[in-house]
Amino acid sequence: MNEGVFFRFFLGAWLSISIISCFTLLFVSAPYGRHIRSGWGPTIRNRLGWMLMEAPSAIGFFVWFLLGKGWRSIAACVFLGLWEFHYIYRAFIYPFTLRDRGKHMPVSVVLMAASFNLGNSYINARYLFTLSNGYPLTWLVDIRFLVGLALYIIGTAINRQSDAILRGLRQSQETGYRIPYGGLFRWVSSPNYLGEIIEWSGWAIATWSLPGLSFAIWTYANLAPRAFANHRWYQEHFPDYPPERQALFYLPIRKPSTSPK
């Protein structure tokens, strides 16, 4: 079996697993953060867990870049920069901004996330830098790339702003939770997840590839169920939680009028 055949098989299986994952996570919340619970094996510190989860994506993507033909293309170098801009931050900067002293996450969650990031980096990088027909320099002024880049930038900005708001809710020694306000928290409970979904949807458009689309689908499959779980958690733990706020996507809903006709 040559790599092209293996790649198509792996990509098809990868997309199928994303659907199963999304359905499962609607009923079983991943046990970390506010949803952590016993029964998932040994745990490690949150900061170390985040680094071990996210680093494989930053490192793996760069290795596939070096092993492929990407370094010969300016457009491919741009894709490398976009990917690493997210994952270097997520693996090596974001963990050190966490204000959750003493919190842990299961090793099993770390291993599952690291495995996903390795597979995802392989699918995207191997296609971009080896198996595709390549991206000419003119791709950088193609409408698909420009629209995708705009969405990537918007999504990244939303994600980073929302993370900063959540981080600002705690003092350095605090571990509890509060109701977040500001930014898109005005309308939805998890704008950080919304931002990441927009970001990788932009990636899918900018690369105009099935591997890019698979990443966008996986992002939604992982984060949408988590956003719904977070929304329910807020409502259960805070009686004064804003009733107009929705889980992930804000859809203005007019309440029926109670005034007499």
Detailed description of the structure:
This protein is an all-alpha fold. The chain has two domains: 105 residues, no CATH class; 101 residues. Helices cover 61% and strands 2% of the residues. The protein contains seven helices and two strands. The C terminus is likely disordered.
What would the keywords be for this entry?
mainly alpha; two-stranded antiparallel sheet; globular
- Alpha-carbon distance between the two ends: 72 Å
Which regions have little confidence, pLDDT < 50, spanning 5+ residues?
Answer: 255-261
Q: What's the shape?
A: globular
* Spatial order of strands in the largest sheet: 1-2
In terms of structural class, how would the helical and strand content be classed? mainly alpha
Summarize the structure.
The chain has helices at 3-25, 46-67, 74-92, 107-131, 143-167, 191-207, 210-237; strands at residues 43-45, 104-106.
What are the SSEs and their pairings?
Layout: H1 3-25, E1 43-45, H2 46-67, H3 74-92, E2 104-106, H4 107-131, H5 143-167, H6 191-207, H7 210-237
Antiparallel strand pairs: 1-2
Helix pairs in contact: 1-7, 2-3, 2-4, 5-6, 6-7
